[in-house]
Amino acid sequence: DAKKLVRSPSGLRMVPEHRAARSPFGLDEPPWVPDKECPRCMQCDTKFDFITRKHHCRRCGKCFCDKCCSKKVPLPRMCFVDPVRQCAECALVSQKETEFYDKQLKVLMNGATFFVTLGTSDKSELMVCRLSNNQRYLVLDGDSHCEIEIIQISTVQILTEGFTPGGGNTRAIGMILQYKVPGSEEVMQMKFTAGEDFSCNKKLSASWLAAMHKATKLLYESRDQ
């Protein structure tokens, strides 16, 4: 869809004017601490001067010396694909998120097959579930077609099996998803269950659900910003 681009607060990139057109997993750039309010490094307290220059972390916006803000890693949640300067704490978080963008996001877009049950119905439909290329919709295709806007999803519960009292690995076998119907306060529920037959690859379904679990965490964090 057409979307107008505007310059971000840092002036370093262009972003869609309206947040609704952006990825639901994205974060807004933080306001930068003004130079005049930061005479010392906010990490090691070193005083800034002509030799010790100040740098802003692209993720938190705080002011640091070069030593405390020397990490340069991608920040995909703010659309910085190339490595940008970040403090050590933020760089660690961004590195973990980069794994989601490099791996889990591709899994979600490739999709997996589930039996989908709407509400309290006792009937289910075999559907391929995937994340749209613009990351804004969960697309379900079977005998019918359905699209759920990601920002309308209110809760996601991953269903697992394999837990034993003595400990052990669990395996994701499905999920329960609740979402709001656009234009109303009505909340709908869908249940996704990995198929037992050979045509439904259990390993692929489990990987897709694990990726969805990580995506949900990022979604909630974006909303809390």
Query: Could you give a short account of the major beta sheet?
Result: 7 strands, antiparallel
- Report the β-strand fraction as a percent range: 25-35%
CATH class of the largest domain: Mainly Beta
Strand order of the largest sheet: 10-9-8-7-13-12-11
- How many runs of DSSP E, i.e. beta strands? 13
How many individual helices? 2
Structural class: alpha+beta
Order of helices and strands: EEEEEEHEEEEEEEH
| Nearest-integer average pLDDT | 86
Description:
With 225 residues, this protein is an alpha+beta fold. It folds into 2 domains: 105 residues, Herpes Virus-1 (2-Layer Sandwich); 114 residues, PH-domain like. 20% of the residues lie in helices and 33% in strands. The protein contains 2 helices and 13 strands, in the order E-E-E-E-E-E-H-E-E-E-E-E-E-E-H. The protein has a 7-stranded antiparallel sheet with strand order 10-9-8-7-13-12-11. Helix 1 packs across helix 2. The chain is elongated and about 70 Å long. The relative contact order is 0.12. This is ZFY21 protein.
